[in-house]
Design brief:
By secondary structure, this protein is mainly alpha-helical. The protein has a domain of 56 residues. The protein has five helices and no strands. Helix 3 packs antiparallel against helix 4. 11% of the residues are buried.
Amino acid sequence: MLFYKRIVLFVKNAKFDKTKIIMKKNMGTIDKAIRISVALVIVALYFMDKLPGAWAIALLVVALIFVATSFMSFCPLYLPLKISTLKGKSDSNS
């Protein structure tokens, strides 16, 4: 219970910088389509019982991450690598 109270106090007293919370889009349409296609293949293989035990769970987690990042159009792994698959938009006006 003490841990919960500390978290509540932290959230109430926290001052967030809006520029750090916003996730800028860094995924293009082709990137999103590939990720969703790979996720669909993984799910199909799972339901056809082609994936064994722990591999099935691990790949389903990867598929879930692929789908989630595709819908958000943001991949956190692209940030440290400074990769963006978006085309046509520049960051010069930000």
